[in-house]
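> call design_seq(struct)
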């Protein structure tokens, strides 16, 4: 299949190269200067790029996220090969800062559906980004039980379609750099849709501008730039062995002495 795809791509590239040469020759025959030909080609490329991005906005967003996260941090990846190349799975990770989801989205090769707090999901302007990334808003049962039920339905539907879903089982960003107790939501998800769960750990984000180490996040002066962080993953846990406590222990072991 890969060979056929490469061969088809080569044929299309050759056809477009010939077409572009003919197009340039026609413009030259009409007396159009070479700089003008290049300008026309650039404008056409912009139109084609805009059309492609309109068809696949999620991949455009992921590309921008990758640039942003790798500009802000020096990220070391460990064990990401444990994430299945295909088929449904759930990623669970510790929650240290407001950048956590973006770092995961820029590092994991497959598109990831993030489950996130409904209040953050509704933030103006950012809501466009979250909807483009197809994030799943969720609310606590005591606050809005229907919103929670809709979120669990959306997670089950995504997993049934073979997608990757990521949750932060702590339910909130840490205030002290330590991992908060994992909530039982992950157990409910896997009980409803039995899929493997991949434990992941973000290391080195505590103390960043987007964490709560020095008070409310993003309100203190940045204290470091292009810092070293790590994103680690362990082998998937079979659905039958999934428990909130067991996953918390796996994430803690992955993190080690990092914060």
């Amino acid at each position: 299949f890969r060979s056929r795809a490469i061969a088809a791509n080569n044929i299309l590239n050759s056809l477009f190269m010939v077409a572009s040469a003919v197009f340039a020759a026609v413009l030259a025959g009409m007396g159009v200067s070479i700089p003008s030909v290049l300008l026309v080609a650039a404008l056409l490329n912009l139109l084609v790029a805009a059309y492609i991005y309109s068809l696949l906005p999620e991949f455009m967003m992921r590309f921008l996220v990758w640039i942003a996260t790798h500009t802000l941090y020096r990220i070391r990846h460990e064990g990401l090969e444990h994430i299945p190349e295909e088929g449904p799975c759930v990623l669970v990770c510790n929650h240290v800062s407001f950048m956590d989801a973006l770092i995961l989205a820029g590092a994991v090769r497959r598109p990831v559906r993030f489950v996130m707090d409904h209040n953050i999901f509704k933030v103006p302007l950012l809501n466009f980004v979250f909807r483009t990334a197809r994030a799943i808003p969720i609310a606590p049962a005591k606050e809005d039980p229907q919103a929670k039920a809709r979120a669990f339905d959306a997670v089950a539907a995504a997993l049934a379609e073979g997608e990757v879903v990521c949750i932060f089982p702590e339910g909130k960003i840490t205030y002290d750099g330590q991992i908060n107790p994992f909530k039982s939501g992950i157990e409910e998800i896997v009980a409803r849709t039995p899929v493997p769960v991949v434990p992941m750990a973000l290391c080195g984000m505590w103390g960043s501008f987007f964490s709560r180490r020095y008070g409310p996040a993003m309100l203190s002066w940045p204290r470091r730039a292009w810092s070293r962080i790590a994103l680690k993953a362990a082998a998937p846990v079979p659905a039958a062995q999934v428990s909130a406590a067991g996953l918390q222990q796996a994430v803690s072991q992955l993190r080690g002495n990092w914060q």
